[in-house]
Design brief:
It is a single chain. The protein folds into four domains: about 5-165, Hypothetical protein af1432; about 180-325, Beta Polymerase, domain 2 (2-Layer Sandwich); about 385-480, Beta-grasp domain (Ubiquitin-like (UB roll)); about 485-564, 2-Layer Sandwich (Alpha-Beta Plaits), CATH 3.30.70. Helices cover about 50% and strands about 15% of the residues. The protein contains 23 helices and 14 strands. The strands form four sheets. A five-stranded mixed β-sheet has the order 1-2-5-4-3. Strands 12-13-11-14 form a four-stranded antiparallel β-sheet. Strands 9-8-10 form a three-stranded antiparallel β-sheet. Mean pLDDT is about 80; it is low at about 95-105 and about 330-380. The structure holds manganese (II) ion. Manganese (II) ion (MN) binds near residues 63, 64 and 128. Manganese (II) ion binds near residues 39, 64 and 128.
Length: about 575
């Protein structure tokens, strides 16, 4: 158990919090036999290392105290003040958030409300989850998988949404072996050699790049080989039919330079050395990813004509990419303590950078930490909402979404046949704008079809597309039924290596030609969609096929439609 970092801070507040936690957890043990205090200490250390303020670190030390001892939130308020009490209370509510299917929705709703009021609640909770995942092997086996699933499905995406890439990736990697043990073993076994080979190769390229950059007076802060994380690699492999040769960023070269100008200059140097692969250059500096990720990515035909992915960014971008929103607290602290501006000096076209712009808006608003927090609360979650099905599944939608978007997210048939909605038990118009925490129930009517008017208010492109195609289909039906030319199957499946092969074998064995086949994985989910188009065939034949497909392990749902 390390308290060295804590002692180094010399904070009477943190020392007091530590003493209270130590006493509250006295005699208590973790599953692995460690004294319980090891856990809050580890959580607090992570929170501290992410650069959060003293109150957050104190709340992290105290986060399990109310749950595990006779100390109440009121006691904490008296001892430590309103802010720490608020954070601890927010964290105390968050016990036992299970995966959406088995959970108490009330709990999750409270969680969302707590962290949308103050993001530090979520960040501390993520630190808590990280330590629990790191010690997951000590939990009883039946709880491991549930816990890991919850981590991959709720916490890792939340960390990603916060821009905390490193944490998000780490949480997924910790969960991976528990969720897909066989696939994990397969992957480790499969990539080990390739990883090493690629790393060797990147090390060979490194000095060449350093020399070329030096020739243009660019001295990088760091150049290293970045290995792709296992879980994200696995999800990418599923999209590429498990073909490792198609993964160009298994090991990427990462160059960290001082300024944005140097990013583009370094890119020029590299493109002058080796030809870039067409269509692979991505300027996430000019157009950051929605979660704020900034970097230049390019893929070149490097020495021996081998493919190499290169990522170029500044130190600030790198830290932000890894730490996300937590980095802003860190910057704020550094600014206060040393007057050294680590912010956005050297960024030339500030106005063009979305993430910077957002930050500037926040900066304008905040004279204090408190004001900054408020800005974050409003701005950061304004673009997504979390709503609930009557079965307490969480559905994540863009802000401004309506019950129709919700219905299509659940299932196209539900979308197509929806006639009304009950939101929190009340009948609501279909163009009602949903809010986080709403419980949404869709009322359907058989044979009902979408109308043109829906296109005025649907928010998601997914719903828009489906409404349009339903309208078109309807029109075609009115014109008269042409004989179908083809039939298209859609198979929703749990991502599993070899799944595609099993499916295509069914078609081959039934002597049915496949005209067209695609497989798509939503990179945020563990499901993938396989689409197979074949020449038109009789209904009984289709039904036989569907029965066979349903027997393939991993199949979740099979649907088909005729193409005319
Ligand atoms: Mn805990």
């Amino acid at each position: 158990m390390s308290t060295a970092w804590l002692e180094k801070i010399h904070s009477p507040l943190l020392e007091k919090a530590y003493e209270v936690a130590l006493k509250a957890h006295e005699g208590e043990q973790r599953m692995n036999g460690d004294p319980y205090i090891v856990h809050p200490l580890a959580v607090a250390e992570a929170v501290h290392s992410w650069g959060l303020d003293e109150n957050s670190v104190a709340a992290a030390l105290l986060h399990d105290v109310v749950e595990d001892s006779s100390i109440t939130v009121e006691d904490i308020r008296k001892e430590f003040g309103d802010e720490i009490a608020f954070l601890v209370q927010g964290l105390t509510k968050l016990q036992n958030i299970a995966i959406p299917k088995n959970q108490d929705a009330e709990n999750l709703r409270k969680f969302i409300i707590a962290f949308s009021e103050d993001l530090r609640v979520l960040i501390i909770k993520l630190a808590d989850r990280l330590h629990n995942m790191r010690t997951l092997q000590f939990l009883p086996e039946e709880r491991q998988k549930l816990f890991a699933l919850e981590t991959a499905e709720i916490y890792a995406p939340l960390a990603y949404r916060l821009g905390m890439q490193k944490l998000s990736g780490e949480l997924e990697d910790l969960a991976f072996p528990y969720i897909h043990p066989e696939e994990y073993q397969w992957l480790i076994h499969e990539v080990k050699e390739t990883y090493e080979e690629r790393q060797e190769y990147v090390r060979k390229v490194l000095p060449l790049i350093e020399k070329a950059l030096a020739g243009h007076h660019i001295k990088p802060i760091a150049i290293d080989a970045r290995a792709k994380r296992y879980f994200s690699l696995y999800k990418k492999l599923l999209r590429h039919n498990m073909n490792l040769n198609e993964i160009h960023d298994l090991v990427a070269l990462r160059i960290i330079v001082k300024t944005v100008e140097e990013c583009y200059a370094a890119l020029g140097v590299i493109h002058a050395m080796w030809p870039p692969m067409p269509g692979r250059f991505k300027d996430y500096i000019a157009r950051p990813k929605p979660n704020g990720y900034r970097s230049l990515h390019t893929t070149v035909f490097c020495i021996d004509n081998k493919i190499l992915e290169v990522q170029i960014k500044t130190k600030e971008m790198h830290e932000e990419n890894e730490l996300g929103i937590a980095a802003h607290w860190a910057y704020e602290q550094v600014k206060k303590s040393s007057q050294k501006l680590m912010g956005w000096k050297g960024v030339k076209n500030k106005k063009e950078l979305m993430w910077v712009q957002q930050l500037q808006n926040w900066q304008k608003k905040f004279a204090s930490q408190e004001e900054f927090l408020n800005a974050v609360k409003v701005d950061f979650f304004k673009d997504r909402i979390f709503v609930f099905t009557p079965h307490n599944d969480v559905i994540d939608l863009p802000a401004g979404s309506t019950p129709v978007d919700f219905a299509y997210r659940i299932h196209s048939q539900i979308g197509d046949s929806c006639v009304g909605a009950r939101v929190n038990g009340k009948i609501t118009p279909l163009d009602y704008e949903l809010k986080s925490g709403d419980v949404v129930e869709i009322v359907t009517q058989k044979g009902k079809k979408p109308t043109e008017g829906w296109l005025r208010f649907v928010k998601t492109s997914e719903a828009r597309k489906k409404v349009k195609s339903a309208i078109n289909e309807n029109e075609r039906k009115l014109i008269g039924k042409a004989a179908p030319k083809a039939v298209e199957f859609k198979v929703v499946n749990a991502d599993r290596p070899g799944f595609l092969k099993d499916i295509t074998e069914i078609f081959a064995n039934s002597k049915i030609n496949i005209i067209y086949l695609t497989s798509e994985t939503d990179h945020r989910s563990t499901f993938s969609n396989v689409t197979i188009r074949c020449p038109a065939m009789s209904q009984p034949k289709i039904e036989t096929l569907i029965v066979k497909i349903k027997r393939v392990p991993g199949t979740k749902e099979v649907s088909y439609k005729f193409l005319r």
